[in-house]
């Protein structure tokens, strides 16, 4: 389609051209159940809603695969249909010549009669250009075409791949293509704008004039931020005239002292203005060398020298948009949308500029997302999802890559067996990174030694869009969960980028070395300086940060002026010299994990010494880096600029609202190797292996950690059952069992998961060989735990029952480094429970009493044991375990009660949530 015609059509448009109303699309919603990773699971899980499109044509029909967006499924179905029809699908696999032809075609179409009334934003520009006066009437700036026609942009990239790093080249490309249409459009080499050669038919122009509600009287301005090229000059609030009689590109040109809109270059979209509309940078178009002759676009030769100064690189503007910007620049949010000639605009202030600057670094993205620009910090370690506050590392990394126009992060997850240690160490490399720049990683490295011998490892590559490697990060650590591996490698990459982007924003690494300049002014006294909240705790605080100007240092009452005046200073003077305090940032409630670097070090070090409900306030001298961050937070830039020049102090005010101790799991994992949870499971597995049991029920199976471990060994078990009330836990257990049993089931012939409360009896679990109940009873009220004890031994009557629960006396050891808050201490001198969900925790004596009495009543014997620590040394095992054995001589009333209940046969309150049988795999509920 050389030299003209319409732009290439989408597959759907081609189908429409060929079949019109005879092409019938039907969208089907698909709820992806495979998402649960476990066929047959009877728990409804919320998967993403996907779409599949059925396209019916007169002779045949096609069905697309599933897509997240309806329109993608339609396009895919249309592509399939074109494929069947033997029509070459439209794609970007164009040759350079085809790309040129396409651009030429698109430009021609853009200046066609039809396009003038098009709903495309470019149509609005065309119409606006026709209202321009004089020579420029009907001329559309090439930067507008290059910016708002995405197809032209992508075609230009085929012609010149380096366009990716220098978008200005699109303009040269469009000019060159337009030169091929010399009969049709006027492309003056001196002016980067295009105009149709022949006038539009008068009736079209007239029709447009009547539809356009021209209210040339209205006078509107929109706020913008002016970024001078000279870095010494401050970024200031400015305004652009967007009155309806004016073409807004010309107004911007005016502000930039350029001739008209054709000399204005438009950047890609940057951050968002306060109301959410997109901002772009406007600046002078660099010189455009015409390939046909040597003339240049921006400015005639006489104006050249005046312009030279203007064409110095604008470092600040270049930084925020990642492309070279020359001369002064304007950050504004104004433009046309689809389907309307009304300008869409939004005020942009100086704060917007500083927020965009801040959001260029991973640290800044995290700060902005947490709405705590001064207080929050990108944590240096990813612990568990539950303790991570703010957007997840992978999402921040994606945003960062988008921001810097890099390709999407390329993750490679492997589950391969462990490599040799030397391999692993070698793989921890950073390309294009100074080799020796690893000092900051040392601390992390200690913790990073590969402990797991299996699991997931993840590498990430960050590439430019043209596939050059920017960073390759391959940590050697293995994680149990794939997601943890991905999040951790993302965080590693983010921390590396942060280091290079946050020169201005490095907070003290050690929280304590800045204490000297803190004038602690803590409201309540007490043992200050003693850290009472330990790493791993999640604290919740309310804080505010303000600037305080000491009148002694303020510009008119400064030190020099006050010299020798001390005697004459009247009381009135002193009264007038009030401290001014201006709020910068505040947060009613924000949570962070202590010890991960997630919070400004001043706040963290103060908070860890506070007690719940306490208020603290202290000043610090203002670090240099904070200036830009303050301007990113406040709206009254002028006032704060003046305050900042008066050597203000940064005042922190904090209330500690609450503390959640490190989780039971983390605490236990930190104290015991292998972790206590693993030791409990191993203890039970050992008993099971030694028995000749064929049926087992795990009461309160949770995510199935015991059932999981069992399947790693050959046992005599033929039927395994799990019961729980947590759908989440059961779903995880089902997923695990599904994958494990289908690989290697051993002797196991059936596996069933029930949704039900173990406080209720279900006849299907009567007379099993082994019952296990690990760390469950303390999650019930104490009387319920007693009720369970009664039910299990009188009705379920397993031959062997293993029950574990925390030994409360051991908590003093576990919590040695995590003392209670003052409030909790005053309530009781006893240690806290290990988990906020525990309803009680028993001492050894309480547990012994419960178990012994129970055993006696129901004709069982019981033995006590435990894991973690030692039974013979105070305070005993960390987890206490009772092993009940049914006495052979059992002929008690229990037997009768149980038999009666079983015979009734009606007691089956549990719901089968998932079931597996050896021969036919899973069965649906
Ligand atoms: C700490 S978890 C222990 C899970 C598993 N036994 C283990 O050791 O990994 C406690 C479990 O008890 C379950 N649970 C609490 N009350 C229950 C009840 N009345 N019936 C069934 N399960 C219950 C909870 O849903 C949770 O999954
Ligand atoms: Mg527990």
TrEMBL record:
Keywords: Magnesium, Metal-binding, Methyltransferase, RNA-binding, RNA-mediated gene silencing, S-adenosyl-L-methionine, Transferase. It is an enzyme of class 2 (transferase). Residues 93-204 form the HTH La-type RNA-binding domain. It catalyses: small RNA 3'-end nucleotide + S-adenosyl-L-methionine = small RNA 3'-end 2'-O-methylnucleotide + S-adenosyl-L-homocysteine + H(+). Residues 507-529, 551-573 are annotated as: Disordered. The keyword Acetylation does not apply. This is Small RNA 2'-O-methyltransferase.
């Amino acid at each position: 389609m050389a030299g003209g015609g319409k732009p290439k059509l989408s597959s759907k448009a081609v189908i429409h051209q060929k079949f019109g109303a005879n092409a019938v699309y039907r969208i089907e919603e698909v709820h992806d159940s495979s998402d649960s990773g476990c066929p047959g699971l009877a728990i409804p899980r919320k998967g993403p809603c996907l779409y599949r499109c059925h396209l019916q044509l007169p002779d045949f029909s096609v069905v697309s695969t599933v897509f997240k967006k309806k329109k993608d499924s339609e396009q895919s179905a249309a592509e399939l249909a074109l494929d069947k029809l033997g029509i070459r699908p439209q794609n970007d696999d164009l040759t350079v010549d085809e790309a040129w032809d396409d651009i030429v075609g698109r430009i021609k179409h853009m200046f066609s009669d039809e396009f003038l009334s098009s709903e495309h934003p470019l149509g609005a520009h065309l119409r606006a250009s026709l209202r321009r006066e004089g020579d420029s009437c009907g001329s559309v700036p090439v930067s507008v075409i290059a910016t708002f026609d995405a197809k032209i942009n992508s075609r230009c990239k085929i012609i010149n791949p380096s366009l990716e790093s220098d978008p200005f080249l699109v303009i040269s490309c469009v000019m060159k293509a337009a030169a091929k249409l010399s009969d049709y459009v006027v492309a003056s080499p001196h002016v980067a704008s295009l105009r149709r050669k022949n006038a539009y038919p008068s009736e079209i122009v007239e029709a447009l004039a009547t539809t356009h509600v021209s209210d040339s009287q209205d006078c509107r301005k929109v706020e913008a931020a002016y970024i001078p090229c000279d870095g010494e000059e401050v970024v200031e609030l400015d305004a652009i005239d967007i009155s309806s009689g004016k073409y807004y590109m010309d107004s911007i040109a005016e502000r930039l002292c350029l001739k008209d809109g054709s000399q204005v270059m438009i950047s890609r979209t940057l951050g968002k203005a306060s109301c959410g509309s997109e901002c772009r940078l406007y600046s002078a178009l660099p010189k455009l060398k015409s390939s046909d002759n040597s003339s240049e676009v921006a400015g005639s030769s006489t104006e050249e020298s005046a312009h030279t100064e203007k064409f110095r690189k604008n470092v600040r503007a270049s930084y925020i948009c990642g492309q070279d910007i020359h001369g002064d620049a304007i950050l504004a949010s104004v433009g046309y949308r689809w389907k309307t000639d009304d300008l869409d605009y939004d005020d942009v202030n100086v704060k917007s500029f500083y927020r965009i600057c801040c959001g260029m670094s991973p640290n800044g993205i995290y700060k902005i997302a947490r709405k705590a620009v001064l207080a929050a910090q990108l944590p240096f370690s990813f612990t568990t999802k539950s303790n991570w506050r703010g957007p997840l590392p992978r999402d921040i990394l994606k945003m960062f890559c988008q921001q810097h126009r890099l390709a999407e992060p390329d993750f490679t997850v492997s589950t391969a067996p462990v490599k040799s240690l030397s391999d692993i160490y070698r793989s921890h490399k950073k390309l294009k990174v100074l080799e020796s720049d690893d000092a900051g990683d040392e601390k992390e490295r200690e913790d990073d030694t590969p402990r797991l011998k299996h699991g997931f490892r993840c590498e990430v590559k960050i590439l430019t869009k043209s596939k050059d490697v920017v960073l390759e990060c391959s940590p050697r650590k293995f994680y149990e969960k794939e997601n943890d591996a991905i999040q951790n490698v993302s965080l590693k990459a983010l921390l590396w980028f942060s280091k290079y982007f946050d020169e201005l924003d490095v907070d003290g690494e050690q929280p304590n070395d800045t204490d000297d300049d803190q004038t602690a002014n803590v409201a309540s006294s007490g043992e200050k300086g003693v850290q009472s909240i330990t790493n791993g705790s999640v604290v919740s605080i309310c804080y505010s940060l303000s600037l305080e100007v000491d009148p002694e240092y303020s510009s008119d009452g400064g030190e020099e002026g006050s010299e020798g005046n001390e005697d004459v200073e009247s009381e009135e003077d002193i009264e007038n010299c009030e401290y001014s305090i201006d709020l910068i940032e505040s947060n009613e409630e924000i949570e962070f994990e202590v010890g991960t670097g997630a919070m400004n070090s001043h706040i963290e070090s103060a908070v860890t010494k506070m007690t719940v409900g306490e208020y603290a306030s202290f000043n610090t001298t203002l670090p240099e880096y904070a200036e830009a961050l303050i301007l990113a937070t406040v709206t009254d830039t002028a006032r704060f600029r003046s305050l900042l020049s008066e050597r203000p102090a940064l005042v922190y005010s904090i209330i500690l609202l609450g503390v959640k101790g490190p989780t039971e799991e983390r605490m236990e994992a930190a104290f015991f190797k292998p972790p206590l949870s693993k030791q409990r499971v191993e203890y039970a597995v050992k008993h099971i292996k030694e028995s000749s049991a064929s049926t087992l029920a795990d009461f309160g199976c949770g995510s199935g950690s015991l059932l999981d471990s069992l399947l790693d060994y050959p046992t005599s078990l033929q039927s395994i059952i799990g019961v729980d009330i947590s759908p989440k836990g059961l779903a995880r257990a089902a997923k695990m069992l599904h994958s494990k049993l289908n690989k290697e089931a051993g002797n196991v012939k059936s596996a069933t998961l029930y949704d039900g409360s173990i406080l209720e009896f279900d006849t299907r679990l009567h007379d099993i060989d082994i019952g296990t109940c690990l760390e469950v009873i303390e999650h019930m009220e104490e009387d319920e735990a007693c009720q369970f004890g009664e039910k299990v031994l009188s009705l379920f009557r397993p031959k062997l029952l293993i029950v574990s629960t925390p030994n409360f006396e051991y908590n003093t050891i576990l919590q040695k480094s995590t003392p209670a808050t003052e409030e909790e201490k005053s309530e009781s001198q006893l240690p806290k429970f290990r988990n906020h969900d525990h309803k009680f925790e028993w001492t050894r004596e309480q547990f012994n009493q419960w178990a012994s009495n129970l055993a006696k009543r129901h004709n069982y014997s019981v033995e006590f044991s435990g894991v973690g620590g030692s039974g013979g040394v105070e305070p005993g095992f960390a987890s206490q375990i009772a092993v009940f054995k049914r006495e052979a001589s059992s002929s008690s009333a229990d037997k009768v009660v149980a038999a009666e209940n079983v015979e009734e046969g009606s007691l089956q309150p549990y719901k089968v949530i998932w079931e597996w049988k050896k021969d036919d795999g899973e069965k649906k509920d």
